[in-house]
Known about the structure:
By secondary structure, this protein is an alpha+beta fold. It has one domain (5-139). The protein contains 5 helices and 8 strands, in the order ααβαβββββαββα. Strands 1, 2, 3, 4, 5, 6, 7 and 8 form an 8-stranded mixed sheet that branches. β5 (80-85) and β6 (93-95) form a beta hairpin. The chain is flat.
Amino acid sequence: MKLDRFKREALRREFPFLSSFKEELSKAEELSIGRIDAEFLSHTPSEYSVDGSVVGISRGEEISLVISDGTVIKDAVKQEYEHRSNYAHTDTSIGDGETVLHAIDRHGVQVDFVVVRHYGIHTENHFSFGSRLVILKPAKGFRIKEIISEAYQKASGEVRAEANF
């Protein structure tokens, strides 16, 4: 949905935790609301950037967790990244990230909402700009803790199978 002043205020009332995202919400061009599913939990956020004298591209996503007491853990999921530069004597740097499920397990929290900020959604004249927010909530009956338990059980089974060669 496109955001105007009235929609921004309605969103703040419906989702009080958005007060922690004042700057992001004021700059967002659009916002959508969806559900957390298994595919999203297996997603690894990414960031890609290029800098130089005539280029400034930075696009990616930041994922924040809203836990059951209303606390917000900003940028809670480690992004995989690639950074390039057009300046002399610079190397490309690449790094691994983690899945949303791994981050939730690492933080050891009960997640009520996830806020994803996609930034650098437009590129013009070798510079990126713009952002979009997505608010996600688990569907009724969707238990993230059960998925984490299943992942540990699966990993244990694989380790046992490997150990019993």
